[in-house]
Structure formats: C-alpha cells, structure tokens
C-alpha cells in the first residue's frame, strides 16, 4: 500500500515543532522518543507500520485546539487516533505526521435520563459509555466487536456499526452533537441535545469522515432504555441458499430481530474447534435474536421458528436459559479469535443486498479455489454486511499480497452486485485504492470538495480514503 | 419552467442556466419556495427497485409519496419515519414527492423512536450547481464507503444539488396500534410523563401533548399481544399521572399539526431537548402550542414578531414554517458554522443558482 513520501521540510523542522508543542502541552503529553512513538506506528491493520514524527496526548478541547493551530501554521500533517483499533489503517501515521491521540480525554461530562442523552469526551471507550448508564437501565446502542477497546472518537470517524444495528442503527443514527476542533484550531459546536441539528447536516457528513474534517473532542450521544430481555435462537441449514431464504422470509414476515448473524461451514468448524459452543456441523448457521418481555419474545420466536422449520433445518435450537443464550452467542463472539488461532487472516467488510447472498458466497468459494487461500464467512445477514476472513500465512513470502488481491476481488464483487466496499470498518488505506470501483471521479470530487472546505490545506489524515492520484494536487498544493 | 425527464437533461439545463433556479417537487411546502426559473421534478418519477426481503426501495425523486406508500403497503411495509404532510397546515395543494421529503428531511411523530428521514436514507443521486451528476451511498443498509453526502443532501433544501433518485430502508407495517391518553396534565407534567414513557422499555412510538385539549398521547405499535402487554405495563408505570384511557387517536392529525390549520397566525417549529420545552414555551407568548417528540418538538402559533428574539440562546433551533416575520425562515448559525455552510454552497453551487438564499 503506497503512502505519500514524507515532507522533507517538516522533517527538518522536527525540533522546532516539538518545542512549540511542548510549550502548549504538559511535558508528558508530547512523545518523541523513538521507543515510545513505536506504540503509534500502526493500528489494528498491523501489516502496515510507520512511526510518526511524534505523538501528542492532549487532555481537553483547548489543548487539541492549541496543537492543531501549531500544526496548521507549520504545515504539519496530523493523524487523529482513538484507541487504534481500526482494521482499515485509519490511524496509520506517515513519518512527517503528528499523531493526535484522544486517550486522555475519557470523562463523562453530563448524563441526562429524562432527555435520554450522555455527553462524553471522545477518548472514552464505546463499552464504558454503556457502562456509565447501564446501572440506571440504559445503554448506548452501537456495539462494534471492538467495543471493549475502541473509542467514541474512532466510532464517529468511521461511523461504526455492530451486530445490533438492524434495529438500532449505526453511530450516525445515535449522534446528536459534537464539539470539534477544525485544523486551524477553531472550536465549533454542532448540534446539541436536541434532535436533528439545524442548518445543513454537518453532523451527518462529519460522522464517517475518517478524521479528515476535524478532531471531535466531545460528543452528545443518544442513549436508550434497555429492553426487558433478549433471547437468541440458532438454526442450521444444509445450504447457504436456504439460510438466505430464511433471512428474507423472517424479514418479510414483519418481525424485526435485533440481530441476524450468519456463519458458513469453514467458520463453524474453526469456532467449534476453538470455543466448543456445540454448534451443528452444517453449511450455514443463523443466530437470530429478538427482544422484549418473556411473552413478547415467545410470540416473536414462535413465528420465527415456524418460518425456520419450513426450510428443513439441520438444527433448530431456542435458548431456554441465560446460559444457553450465552452458549449460542459464544461461537459467534469468538469467531475472530478462533480464526486467529489457526491462521493469520484478513477481515473484509463489504456489504451486499441480502438477496445476493447465495450468489456472492458461491463466487467467494470459486475465488478461494482460484487463489488457493481459505476463507470463512461471518455475516450480519439482516443488513447485508459481510465479514469474509481470508486465511493466509504472514511468514510465507507473497501470501499477504495474494490475500490482498483476493480481498480486492471480493470487494469488487460486492460493488458489482449492488453493494459497497465497506459497511462499518471504513476505507482508511485498506480500501482507498478501490474507491474508483464504487465511485466515479465526479463522485470523489464531490467528497473531496467537502474536505477542501473543512481542511483547505489537506493536513488532516490526508493520505486516507481517496486514491492518492485523485487527491495528489490537493495534498501537495 | 423546465421539466427534466433524465439526469442528463437536467445536467445540461443547469450547466446552461444563467439565473437562479427554483427547485420544485410537489410544491406543497411553501416555506421552502424561492423565486426563480422553476425546475419541476415531476417528470422524473417512478420506483426503480423494490426488494421487500431486503427492506430497501429506490425511487426517482419526483415520485409521488402516495405512489411509493401504496407500493410499500402492498408488501405490508412502510416508510417508518412517517413524513408530515404540510398541505393541511399550509393550505397548499399538489402531491408531495419523495425528493421533496428528502430535501427538507421531513419526519413525523415516530422520529422519536426510529429516526428521521435522513436516518432511513441509504443513497442519493443528484445534479450539483455546476451540472455534475453525483451519486453517494447506495441501496444497502450499512455503508461507510467515503463521506456521507447522503446526510448532507437530506435537509439541504436543494441548495447543494437537485436530487434525482433516492433509496431508503423501509420497515414492516405493524399489526396493530393503540394510544394511551392522559387528561388534564399541565405542560411540564405532561413532558415528565412522556419522558418516563420514553425511558421505559415499552417502545413508545409517538409521544405528543396538546395543551388546548389537555390531552397527552402515547402510541404503542406492534403485534396485538405485545401491544396489549405494553399498554398494561405503561399504564401501571405512569399511574401517578392519572388513569390513562386507550383510544383510537388520529396520529396523522398530530403529525400534520392539523390543530393550527384553520387558525390565523405564524407557525414556528422548534426542536429542543424535552426538559427545556416548558420554559421556552413560557417565553414565547404564543397563541397556542403543540408538543410532539416527547416535548422535543414544539409547534407554536404566534403573531408576526421574531420568535427567536424572545427565546434567546437555547439548545436547539426554530424554523418559521408558515407566515412572515422580521426574521429569516431558518435559524441563523454561529459564525464558524455559517462559514462552513457557505463554503459548502460555494463548492456545490459555485454560481449560487440553486434555491438561492433559501437557507442562508
């Protein structure tokens, strides 16, 4: 993956940059020691690494503003970083960049139950937002798999989703307001505790802009009352087509499960070996979860089980207790870990129209044979968000490149059937060079025009999202 | 007037335009009209793709809402954000179009539970002020590929581009609905009751208060047994606010603010946080108010003064939806945000010809 060559003039001014940053931040908030900056050389896309010029850890909005003002004045690229869990390389530095980490900013600023919102500093982790309100019966809905570690700042940058967004939506649907620092150091407040911020929907375009428009330091998030209960069922089928049909039939029947998860045979086998959740050995496994009171759950599951039963399931298992529910989720939740035990893998994130599921899985199988690399599929089936895991050997020369090529073919396939390159992980550097598969140059120009307005000098995370040749003239201007 | 039949024709027309254009959907939302050469989008109409099993529909921007709603109803589905029909309140005629609804980001009472128009919008195609044909988003529910211009276009009132096609997530229709009605609550108490309801796990999908009737309405929807159970539970939970009766309620009338239709005066729409609403209303000196969204949406009937001047700074914004006042229709923004908005308009509409001045 190509990255722009570092700006020699910036590199040569390193001492002066550090001096100015140390003048506005506490001493331990500026990290320039080579051993320590190494901690910031990559995110969860570990195949790509590059130590930054330095890393800063501001403690509040004003410190962020001071840092950005200096970097703006000196023409220094800035890469914002949440918890560094991006699978797309969203927080990958360049050698001439300052990593701006929000980790120190993790406070809850305000909790308001009658108006159903929480205001937090964005370094706070996703799960600890729910943690701050759950004793009072509330939760924050978006639940990316990395929720134990990932920061709200990163969630906003990537518009993160999760397993339960069929019902509750993704980050953008749960974000009411932000405090954001522009690259020139200006602090702006957008939205607030009310619904539908006024004027143009700036909140909408900031969410998912991968840290390229500004650094969001505080966020007002919608919180919701916890459902009375939730219960999953597990179904096994002997073909992907049948499982796909079951998903369609459930959705058409008027039930809206909070989650519909899909796993294919390679994934089932790997997780079974690892987690021993007692999954049936079959071609396709579905986990469907519904919410409500016991009686409401019974009624919804009755309907779902009827539909499931009509398609000759290999297995149909309803959780009868919390323990059984946990066992049903156990395999799914340990799927990535399980794959990691047996192999290096690359996790993809394309979305497809649900109706295309059988075709896409068949094509992925054919591609897997062609490339000689195994692939396991985990899939948010209700919303069409696929996570094919391509297995490769990092120690085998050429295998990573082969894997990337295979991955690109799968993502092109997703676009070809009417879907998109990334459903919840973001473009970062990983899908950057594939953007032209989904978008025309005019489409990309329109997006880059937005960045021109927020960050005219293209200093914020500029080597991401847009193919380097598309953004070239802007970045070097 | 120009009535494009294709994106290409619209693009050519915009490129050759040398005077301001007024973008027209169904023409029912008078407050969003400006003077200019009319671009009538009714020629670009029709559903281009509908997959009930994937909960997605794609339609050309000029498609009448009625046509879309009927097609969805045939598959027992709907647009869950319940877009308001402004014809009642504004006394306008014509057929609202799906493009107009998106351009104005129009939602209804269910917004409080499921989200706004922009939350269900999956993709757009539009022609910008330079004539470029642009697509963003798509027709799948999860899509973070590049910037979300879909949201930016929703609620931009045609000032950044002329929408040509939109795609939506749709939801199943419900088996039944009921409404719990409380009587005689004052505004502050009613808002507390609505907040308690919305903080419960009983999935209230409408929470409105009409001070003139002294009635507070809480809507429950879903499968019959579930609705019955939640109605019982909610009645019990809210016992301290009095005894609720279950009654068929005209939510279309609440959605459309029908109560103000025949009353003279200006109509303002204020979005704020529910707990702030009673104090704001006290400052308004309004002839009448209606609350929706659990109190977070206030409809105020006023004389022709500038309501914003009476409200001062608050968490939210006020839009003048009917009448004229010595004030802009849309809430003025703080300088840094106004500068960003102006910058975006310069990029997307460099000659300043699309619904010129509407939002500024």
Q: Explain this structure to me?
A:
The complex is a heterodimer of chains A (477) and B (360). Chain A has 477 residues and is α+β, with helices and mostly antiparallel strands. Chain A folds into four domains: 8-103, Uridine Diphospho-n-acetylenolpyruvylglucosamine Reductase, domain 2; 108-225, Uridine Diphospho-n-acetylenolpyruvylglucosamine Reductase, domain 3, CATH 3.30.465.10; 230-335, Alpha-Beta Plaits, CATH 3.30.70.2190; 343-416, Alpha-Beta Plaits (2-Layer Sandwich), CATH 3.30.70.2740. Helix content of chain A is 37%, strand content 19%. Chain A has helices at residues 8-12, 14-24, 34-37, 61-74, 126-133, 152-158, 165-168, 202-206, 240-252, 265-275, 294-309, 322-333, 335-342, 357-371, 399-416, 435-438, 441-454, 468-475, and strands at 30-31, 54-56, 78-81, 98-101, 108-112, 117-121, 138-139, 175-181, 187-191, 215-222, 224-225, 230-237, 259-264, 284-291, 315-318, 344-347, 375-380, 385-392. Chain A has a seven-stranded antiparallel beta sheet, with helices on both faces. In chain A, strands 5-6-10-8-9 form a five-stranded antiparallel beta sheet. Chain A has a four-stranded mixed beta sheet with strand order 1-2-4-3, covered by helices on one side. With 360 residues, chain B is an alpha+beta fold. Chain B has helices at residues 7-16, 65-73, 87-90, 98-103, 111-114, 117-120, 149-153, 187-198, 224-237, 251-255, 277-284, 307-311, 335-348, and strands at 21-24, 37-40, 47-51, 56-60, 77-78, 121-128, 133-137, 161-169, 171-172, 176-183, 204-210, 215-222, 245-246, 266-272, 288-292, 297-302, 316-322. In chain B, the strands form five sheets. In chain B, strands 3-4-8-6-7 form a five-stranded antiparallel beta sheet. A four-stranded antiparallel beta sheet of chain B has the order 11-12-10-13. Chains A and B meet through strand 9, helix 8, helix 9, helix 11 and helix 17 of A and strand 7, helix 7, strand 9, helix 8 and helix 9 of B.
């Amino acid at each position: 993956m190509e990255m722009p060559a570092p700006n020699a003039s910036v590199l040569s001014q390193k001492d002066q940059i550090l001096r100015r940053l140390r003048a506005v931040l506490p001493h331990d908030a500026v990290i320039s020691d080579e051993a320590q900056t190494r901690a910031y050389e990559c995110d969860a896309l570990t195949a790509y690494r590059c130590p930054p010029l330095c890393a800063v850890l501001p403690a509040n909005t004003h410190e962020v503003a001071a840092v950005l003002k200096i970097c703006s004045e000196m023409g220094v690229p800035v890469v914002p970083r949440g918890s560094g869990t991006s699978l797309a390389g969203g927080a990958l530095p360049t050698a001439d960049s300052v990593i701006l980490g929000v980790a120190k900013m993790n406070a809850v600023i305000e909790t308001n139950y009658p108006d159903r919102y929480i205001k937090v500093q964005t370094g706070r982790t996703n799960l600890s937002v729910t943690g701050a309100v759950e004793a009072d019966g509330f939760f924050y809905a978006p639940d990316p798999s990395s929720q134990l570690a990932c920061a709200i700042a990163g969630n906003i940058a990537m518009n993160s989703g999760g397993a339960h967004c069929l019902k509750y939506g993704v980050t953008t649907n749960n974000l009411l307001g932000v405090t954001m620092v522009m690259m020139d150091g200006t602090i702006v407040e957008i939205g607030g505790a009310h619904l539908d911020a006024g004027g143009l929907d700036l909140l909408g375009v900031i969410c998912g802009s991968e840290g390229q428009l500004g650094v969001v330091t505080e966020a007002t998030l919608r919180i919701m009352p916890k459902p009375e209960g939730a219960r999953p069922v597990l179904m096994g089928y002997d073909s992907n087509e049948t499982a796909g049909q079951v998903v369609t039939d459930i959705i058409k029947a008027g039930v809206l499960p909070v989650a519909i998860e899909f796993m294919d045979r390679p994934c089932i086998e790997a997780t079974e070996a690892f987690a021993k959740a007692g999954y049936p050995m079959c071609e396709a496994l579905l986990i469907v979860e519904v919410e409500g009171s016991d009686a409401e759950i019974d009624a919804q599951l009755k309907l779902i089980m009827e539909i499931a039963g009509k398609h000759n399931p290999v297995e149909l298992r309803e959780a009868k207790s919390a323990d059984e529910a946990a066992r049903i989720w156990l395999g799914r939740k340990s799927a990535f870990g399980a794959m990691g035990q047996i192999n290096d893998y690359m996790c993809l994130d394309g979305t497809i129209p649900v109706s295309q599921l059988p075709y896409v899985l068949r094509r992925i199988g054919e591609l897997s044979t062609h490339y000689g690399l195994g692939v396991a599929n985990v899939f948010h089936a209700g919303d069409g968000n696929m996570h094919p895991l391509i297995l490769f050997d990092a120690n085998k020369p050429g295998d990573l490149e082969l894997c990337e090529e295979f991955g690109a073919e799968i993502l092109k396939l997703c676009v070809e059937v009417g879907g998109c390159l990334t459903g919840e992980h973001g473009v970062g550097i990983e899908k950057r060079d594939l953007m032209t598969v989904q978008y025309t140059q005019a489409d990309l120009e329109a997006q880059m025009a937005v960045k021109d307005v927020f960050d005219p000098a293209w200093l914020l995370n500029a080597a991401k999202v847009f193919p380097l040749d598309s953004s070239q003239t802007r970045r070097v201007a | 007037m120009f009535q494009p039949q294709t994106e290409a024709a619209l693009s050519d027309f915009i490129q050759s335009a040398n005077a301001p254009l007024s973008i027209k959907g169904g023409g029912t939302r008078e407050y969003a009209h400006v003077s200019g050469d009319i671009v009538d989008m009714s020629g670009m109409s029709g559903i281009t793709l509908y997959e009930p099993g994937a909960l997605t529909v794609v339609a050309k921007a000029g498609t009448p809402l009625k046509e879309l709603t009927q097609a969805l109803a045939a598959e027992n589905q709907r647009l869950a954000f319940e877009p308001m029909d402004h014809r009642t309140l504004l006394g306008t005629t014509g057929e609202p179009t799906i493009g107009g609804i998106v351009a104005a980001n129009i939602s209804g009472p269910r917004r409080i539970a499921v989200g706004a128009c922009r939350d269900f919008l999956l993709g757009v195609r539009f022609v910008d002020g330079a004539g470029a044909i642009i697509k963003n988003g798509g027709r799948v529910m999860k899509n973070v590929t590049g910037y979300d211009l879909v949201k930016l276009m929703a609620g931009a009132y045609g000032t950044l581009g002329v929408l040509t096609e939109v795609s939506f997530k749709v939801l199943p229709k419900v088996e039944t609905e009921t409404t719990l009605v409380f009587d005689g609550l004052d505004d502050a108490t009613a808002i507390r009751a609505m907040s308690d309801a919305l903080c419960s796990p009983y999935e209230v999908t409408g929470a409105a208060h009409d001070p003139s009737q002294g009635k507070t309405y809480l809507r429950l929807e879903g499968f019959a047994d579930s609705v019955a159970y939640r109605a019982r539970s909610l009645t019990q939970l809210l016992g301290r606010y009095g005894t609720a009766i279950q009654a068929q309620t005209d939510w279309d009338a609440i959605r459309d603010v029908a109560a103000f239709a025949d009353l003279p005066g200006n109509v303002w729409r204020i979005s704020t946080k529910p707990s702030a609403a009673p104090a704001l209303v006290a400052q308004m000196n309004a002839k009448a108010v209606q609350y929706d969204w659990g109190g977070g949406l206030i409809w105020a009937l006023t004389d022709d003064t500038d309501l914003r001047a009476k409200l001062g700074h608050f968490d939210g914004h006020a839009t003048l939806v009917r009448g004229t006042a010595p004030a802009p229709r849309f809430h003025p923004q703080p300088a840094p945000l106004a500068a960003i908005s102006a910058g975006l308009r310069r990029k997307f509409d460099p000659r300043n010809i699309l619904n010129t001045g509407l939002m500024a």
